[in-house]
Amino acid sequence: MRLHNKVALITGAGAGIGEATAELFVKEGAKVLVADRDGALAERVAARLGDSALACTADVSKAAEVQAMVELCVARFGGLDVLVNNAGFGCLGTVETLEEDAWDALMAVDLKGVFLCSKYAVPHLRRRGSSSIINMASTISVVGIKDRAAYVAAKGGVAALTRAMALDHAVDGIRVNSVAPGVIASSYYDRMFEQVPDPVAFKKGLEARSPINRMGQPVEIATMMLWLASDEASFATGAMFTVDGGFTAW
């Protein structure tokens, strides 16, 4: 039970990597607040995980909702040990083709959301004395990709913010790291399949990005999240841990 007596708050936990992480954390002994902008998805996951989980509907881009989310977690479970800033989405577009509203909406969730959730969680994490923040970055934080200008910029910001937070809060006993997944089978890519003219070719292209020649599974990222949340990672902070099937090794 690697997370025995620990309390975790996971955003974007209604599906994909967030759901897999919530499930694994509960199996390892944690109490988990399952937060998602889609309340029905959060309720579904929490109901499946039982008494160790509580659902919360929250938009991470809105400060009042984030503050209420953190307070709910602490009130229900008595504290907070682990924050997983997983909520996010992507969209297609270059700086020329992307509409300003689409840019602002993505930045509000993918980057500002990390800021807001961390802002309201840090005081509670500090009280624990040995706690962890895990931010969802991406391999494109370092290598880039065509036609994803806003997403690349946001995830690059998450990677940089992670380093800054690690330095700022080491004295508080808070470790801050990020995880950089490669292509993971999830609703994120399901939505992209609906936007492209040839979904089959698009999927084959995604699979071919890594030497392993397949998409990863959410649980393969959740296992990295588990290690970073546990005391086994007590000397790890300010780092980005890449799990991408070898994509960045080409």
From TrEMBL:
Gene3D superfamilies: NAD(P)-binding Rossmann-like Domain. The keyword Transmembrane helix does not apply. One of its GO terms (molecular function) is oxidoreductase activity. InterPro entries: NAD(P)-bd_dom_sf, Sc_DH/Rdtase_CS, SDR_fam. Keywords: Oxidoreductase. Pfam families: adh_short_C2. Belongs to the short-chain dehydrogenases/reductases (SDR) family. This is NAD(P)-dependent dehydrogenase (Short-subunit alcohol dehydrogenase family).
